[in-house]
Structure formats: structure tokens, C-alpha cells
């Protein structure tokens, strides 16, 4: 068809390189590519065969073009003299081959003419009529052969002429495209550097630093509490009003020796006794004492000896941008990625890593006050991000039905089970039981988007925590994680957003804010702040710290409304006692930078164990090969597992279509150890543990487990 006809009659396009060509009957052709299918009908069986042949040839050509493009996707240098000489050498080779073909053509013509003369002489002989007919047919075929060879030689000559005519044009076009690509890459890199320079310049601007200075000096200052007047607050607190997106409260440290109030006229004041902070339940004191030597205490516990290192990460270079540039705006879980961007842990194991500081929950069990207990729960929710500060690699996407168990019942009093309950969207269910008095469960769906310069990872779903003795039921959700410098520079990760932890029994709340990193702020990087309040909204504790180092808790002894900011918002001033450290991060093991920055717990998560389910992540072959440093083999194995999973999905889709045609219900994939129920607290549909896994492990009866590896 002509271009004009195509513009009016084309119904769409299909990528032949990945298309499947099939024939339904003598005249129909089916072209399918993923979700798009075309049904073509020919006038006859002969015409259908001609179309099938033409489509197969076009498909082969499209595959060759795609492979050539992928081969040329690496970095290229501008055309040099060697490129030109290579092009001229190719033309000379073509010319030489054409001369050989011409020689062969002359020989074919010479011998063909002799053959025809011999056949003509045979025709003149007196032979039976049948022999004459055969000789005549042979003569015609010889003539046709000579005509065909002449046509072939002429076509080759025309091709060489065309190649010589357009060689310079091709060379100029290739040179232009290479220059454009290099110029574009340089522009992107320059823009990224200019962006960073502008941020640093803005950070150093004098007009932006006063707010941060105010925060530091106020936090270290003290309130003149003798008069008890709000107007008597330190004047530096006014600098908070100049801060954009400033915190909703101000914290100042009181001196317990001079903290005496009689008849305070602060509006909305909530009073407490400083003596209580030193004499009350020893949970806070024990937390403060043990935070700094927690790793030493852990070693004193009788436990199974576990590994303390894994093979060093190989130094394989790979161009991240060459892969990610075609993925902008796509869902990360649907992008096929080599293991070079992974770490040798699955998402189920990363989810289990949230339990690294489980002792915070063990201490929370001992709290008599629900607001005190909330402080430990808040510290636990922050501690789960401490392992991510250097972990920019991507965990393996679990296969549907994959599980992971962590049985530490004898050592630490808890056992954990995860199962991948959905593939698209990817969702994992998690259940943890502790004999020390708490149960945690969650179903997390990971949504992610690549935006060119950064990658956003958004965990969706609620985390539930219940204490057995008190019945306190806490619910919260995770914040957004962002991986920066995808194009240029060193990868780094940040956490931002807010967490609201709610105790659905006592109605206590804790609002935690994860401040995103910015060049504009001189505040502490990775800062987390929050307030614990009761059902009446009365604030009891201030939480402060960083998500990669530690969290502190300060008891509020006085709260008041401060001055109004320029935005019309009124600040709350909290007068607190000295902070207590609730949680402090364990130091990383020696040589962690060569072991994917794994913590002590992470190093043990993929350690081989006996008696686990055949679907356990420890038995995943591609992950095990990667951990051993055999990345090429791991990539091959990863492709095999993914193709196996796609085949299962296609079979399941076919079963769904068949059931629909027969008017039957199709349930789809049913999780093995979890079941979907409506949560009584949140009203959401969530996968909860239905039991049976640990009993199956005791009996070593894994007959219900699917074959996914």
C-alpha cells in the first residue's frame, strides 16, 4: 500500500519480533502479541500460505533488527578513520564477491549454451516421442536457469551500485546520530550537576539559615519558668516562624531542680511531676542502659551459632542508565532486571528484617502505661528503616507461593512466616508470634515508580501489633522510600512522610514525621520527630531522633501555646525532662561494605537451614548463585524461574477463560498458609495466618506446597 492508503486504512500495529503467528483453518491467520490479537482472512489457501511465509520472513528480519539494536546499545565513540576504512573495506569485499559471481555467471552462460546445443541436437535425432518431450522439458529448464542466474547477477550489481552511491550518506547519518547521543548524555549530566550546584548555593544563602539556627539554640535553651508566662519564652523561638514547613511544636528542656509551678496561666497546659521520670517504671531506665551495649547483651544469650559473613560482592560493572532509560514511568516490578542490581535476599527476607530490634516490643510488654508502651512501639516502627541507609540494591521479587520462615522461638522467643500471596500487584503476607507477649501481622503491597532521576517505593497496607496481656492493638503504615541519583552520582536512599500509630483500644496516638533530606535545611539529616498523646489529645511524650541511628523519648512536664507564625499557625511549646534513649542502631559487621552492607541479622537470613518448606527463599537457586558470586549463572536461572512462573500464569488465565465460558466461578490463586478476611479494626480485606505451617514442619509434610523452583 501507499502511504496515503496506510493513513486511511491502517487499523493499528503489532511488534512482529515478539508476535506469535498461527493458522486457524485453510484461510485464517492469527497474529498475537500479549494482549493484542489480529485475525486475518485470505481468499484461498495458497494466498494464506504466501502471507504466512511473508510474515515469517518479516518476523525474522524484525528479530535480527532488534538484536542488532541491543548489540549496539552500549557506549559508542564518534566515527573515526578506522570506521571509514572499515566501510570502504566492506564495499571492496562486496565488489570482489560480485566479480566472482560475474565469473560464475559467465561460466553458467557458457555451459548452459553448450547444454542447450546438445539438447537441440538430441531433439533432431530420431527418438521416440516420449523421449523428445523429456528432452524438450530439460531444454526449457536450462533456459530458465540461465535467465535466473542473469537476473541474480544484475540484482547484485544494482545492490553494489546502490551501496556505493549511499555509503557517504549512511556514514554522515551515523555520525550525526552518534554526536546527538553524546550531546544528549552530556546535557543530562550537566543538568544534574547544575541542579546539585544550585541546591548547594541555595543552602548557603544567608536568608535561609536563621530558622535552623533558631531550632538549635531553642532546643538547647531553657524556659524561664519562674514567672510562667508565655510571653517570657526565649525570643529565639520566634525564628521558627520563618521556617517553611516547620514542625508544629517546639521542645525545650526543663531543669527538674527549678521546675516548680504554682498557678500557671498557660493556656492548655498539661502538668507532670519530674520526679516521676526518674522513679517510675524501670522500663525506660533499662532501655536507656541497654541501648548502647545491646550487641554485647545479645552475645550473652544462649543461641545457635550462625554465620557472620557471606562471600564478598563481585566487582561487576554495568551501565545502569542503559537499562533504566527505557523504564521511565513504568512499574518497577514489571521490569526484567539482571541480578547485578539485586542483593542476595528476597523481599520476604527484607520484610522479616523489620524484626531486628524485636526486643523493643519485649520491653513494651512490661509497660503498665499505654502511652509509655506507645513510645516503644514508635521506636520499633522507626527502627525498621535503619538497615536501609546503605542498602540501595533491589531485593529479589518473590515468586508466587514463595515462603520464608524465621524460627527464633528458643533464642529470642518469636517465630515469623511470610508468603507471597499475589504477583501482580506483588503482595506479601507476614505473621509473627512471640511467646513473650505480642503478635504482629501485616500484608504489604509494594508500588514503585521510576521517574528518571529518582525511584519512589511506596509500601501499601497496614501493620498490626497486639499485646496479649493488655489487648492493646496498634496499627500503622510505612512511609515512602526514595532512591536518588539514578542517572548521575552515587545512589542514596531517603525516607519521607508521616506515620500515625493508633492504639485502637485506648485511642492513644503517635504522630511521627520523617523529614525529607534537603540542601535548604541545616537540620540533622534523616530526622524523625513526633508526639505521643492520649485519647483526649493530651501530649505525654516527645519522640525525636533519626531513622538511621537512634530514637529518644522525652517526658512532657508542661505544654503551652506559643506565638503565632506568619502562616497563622500557632506553635505548641513542650517543656520536657531530659531525653531517654529507647533505641540505638547496632554497628554494622566488619567488611560490611563488601557484603551488601548487611547487618548481623541480614547475614543469617539466607543461611541454609534444614526442614524448611520447599518453597522457602533459602532454596531459591538464582538467589543462592548470586550470593556465591556466580552472577552469570544466576541471571540464567532467574530467567528460567520467571519464564516458569509466566507459563503457570498463562495456564491459570486459560483456566479462568474456560471457566467463564462454562459459566463457572474461578477463584484464582489461593494462598497456602494465609487466608483473606475483613479486619475487624480497620475494615480492610487482609491476608491473615490461618495456621498449619509449623505443624506441617514438625511432621515434615509439605505435600501441599507448589513446585515453584
From TrEMBL:
<dbReference type="InterPro" id="IPR018494">
    <property type="entry name" value="Oxysterol-bd_CS"/>
</dbReference>
<keyword id="KW-0472">Membrane</keyword>
<protein>
    <recommendedName>
        <fullName>Oxysterol-binding protein</fullName>
    </recommendedName>
</protein>
<feature type="region of interest" description="Disordered">
    <location>
        <begin position="255"/>
        <end position="278"/>
    </location>
</feature>
<dbReference type="InterPro" id="IPR037239">
    <property type="entry name" value="OSBP_sf"/>
</dbReference>
<feature type="compositionally biased region" description="Low complexity">
    <location>
        <begin position="209"/>
        <end position="222"/>
    </location>
</feature>
<feature type="region of interest" description="Disordered">
    <location>
        <begin position="65"/>
        <end position="87"/>
    </location>
</feature>
<keyword id="KW-0445">Lipid transport</keyword>
<comment type="similarity">
    <text>Belongs to the OSBP family.</text>
</comment>
<keyword id="KW-0175">Coiled coil</keyword>
<feature type="region of interest" description="Disordered">
    <location>
        <begin position="203"/>
        <end position="237"/>
    </location>
</feature>
<feature type="coiled-coil region">
    <location>
        <begin position="174"/>
        <end position="201"/>
    </location>
</feature>
<dbReference type="Pfam" id="PF01237">
    <property type="entry name" value="Oxysterol_BP"/>
</dbReference>
<dbReference type="InterPro" id="IPR011993">
    <property type="entry name" value="PH-like_dom_sf"/>
</dbReference>
<dbReference type="GO" id="GO:0015485">
    <property type="term" value="F:cholesterol binding"/>
</dbReference>
<dbReference type="GO" id="GO:0097038">
    <property type="term" value="C:perinuclear endoplasmic reticulum"/>
</dbReference>
<dbReference type="InterPro" id="IPR000648">
    <property type="entry name" value="Oxysterol-bd"/>
</dbReference>
<keyword id="KW-0597">Phosphoprotein</keyword>
<dbReference type="GO" id="GO:0005829">
    <property type="term" value="C:cytosol"/>
</dbReference>
<keyword id="KW-0813">Transport</keyword>
<dbReference type="GO" id="GO:0006869">
    <property type="term" value="P:lipid transport"/>
</dbReference>
<dbReference type="GO" id="GO:0005886">
    <property type="term" value="C:plasma membrane"/>
</dbReference>
<feature type="domain" description="PH">
    <location>
        <begin position="1"/>
        <end position="60"/>
    </location>
</feature>
<dbReference type="InterPro" id="IPR001849">
    <property type="entry name" value="PH_domain"/>
</dbReference>
<keyword id="KW-0446">Lipid-binding</keyword>
